[in-house]
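We modelled the chain as a single entity of 117 amino acids. Its sequence is:
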Amino acid sequence: MLPVLTYTQPRVVADALRWRHSTLDAAKARAAQLGLEGAAFPWRTIEGDECSGYWPAGTAAFHIGADIAYARGPLPPGQPEDEDFARDYGLELLVQTARLWRSRGHHDAQGRFRIDG
């Protein structure tokens, strides 16, 4: 839903991403708890910690980081980049989600990067 809002309500998306950024320390701690790098954002949360009552679902919800990264960009055509937002929030969200995906994957026998499961 956020990618659609990126085009129609960019300020709403920016507020949501600022909030996610405010939970980054908890997401990084969660990734470390799972033996991963970067940030593992929770599936269900109130203050940044996973609140899912169903442990396997909360642990397997790595797509949330991809959703956050996707919401960050690309910007709609004609909308100028907010360099302050990109520097203060966007870049770190992208870097930490990329680190998570890198640590989730491996290179197969043919040298291709894979994320199994």
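As a brief sanity check on the tokenised model: Residues 83-104 form the longest helix (22 residues). The CA atoms of residues 101 and 115 lie 8 Å apart.
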